[in-house]
Amino acid sequence: MDMNEKDWVAELEREGYTQVAVCANGPDTDFGEHTHEEHTIHVILEGELTLTDETGSETLKRGQRFEIPAGTKHHAKCGPDGCTFVVGVKSE
Prior knowledge:
Elements: H1 5-14, E1 18-25, E2 30-34, E3 39-53, E4 56-61, E5 65-68, E6 74-90
Antiparallel strand pairs: 1-6, 2-6, 3-4, 3-5, 3-6
């Protein structure tokens, strides 16, 4: 099933995520290396995002979702066409 922005927001809220928001970022936006204080989930809506952590790098595209446990050091960079994703937070 191909879910749209509204569907993903509702799904993440059903799964217990809070502060669910849609973030649109321009081409090659580089978030640098960072951590989050809480567990986060991201779902790619458009474009691509390359995520790098201690296990390696992966380029995520439309429909893919990934979770980042609180305190995990990682680096994220948008692709050449930018990236729009839904993000949610879950307290552990």
